[in-house]
Amino acid sequence: MEQINDYLNAVTGLLATVSRDEIYKVADLLMDAYQNDKQVFIMGNGGSAATASHLACDLQKGITSTCPKRFKVMSVTDNVSLMTAWANDADYSDIFAQQIATWVEPGDLVMGISGSGNSPNVIKGIEVGNEKGAITVGLAGYEGGKLAKVAQHCVTVHSDNMQHIEDVHLVVTHLLFRRMLEELGA
Question: Which of 84, 131, 157, 163 has CB 3.0 to 4.6 Å from 168, enough for a Cys bridge?
Fold first, then answer.
């Protein structure tokens, strides 16, 4: 029982420290992308890949099914054949950058999720987004790592516990989704 209480208290404490200003800013950026028919690309590894897929589902299906127009959102973590082809034929650190380079247009939004803030493939994907004129966003842990330096906007969970970071990232993504629904009156 004590272990469960300690875990929940730790996550609750981290939630209290996450920058509300950055969450609102990212929600506004997502809203701008939706209203201006821009695309959103989301990426991450492991648990962060699951969060990327979950957010893409919430935004694409959740917004589209309740609002009059479609939201162009894609998790670039979801095409295993394409990712493994790039990993095998080029380099694992290119699996997201190559996909982003194919699809991104100026003004699109590229979001990278990395618990450590230092995932090379996420960093490269964000860098390509920057080079192509996209708006870039990071969700990071620890002290933000390289992701906080290369992304134009970053929500950082200041913890070194990966499960706590991933829990808070999922809550943040749900907040982003709910904020959009609220703004859209859905």
Answer: 157
Q: Which CATH superfamily is domain 29-128+145-183 in?
A: Glucose-6-phosphate isomerase like protein; domain 1 (3.40.50.10490)
Report the amino acid identity of residue 186.
Answer: A
Per-residue model confidence as pLDDT tens for the chain (186 residues): 899 999 999 999 999 999 999 999 999 999 999 999 999 999 999 999 999 999 999 999 999 888 889 999 999 999 999 999 999 999 999 999 999 999 999 999 999 999 999 999 999 999 999 999 999 999 999 999 999 999 999 999 999 999 999 999 999 999 999 999 999 987
Residue 102 burial by Cβ neighbours in a 10 Å radius (0-12, 13-18, 19+): exposed
Q: Give just the sign of the alpha carbon dihedral 95, 144, 133, 110.
A: positive
Rg (C-alpha) for the chain, rounded Å, is: 16
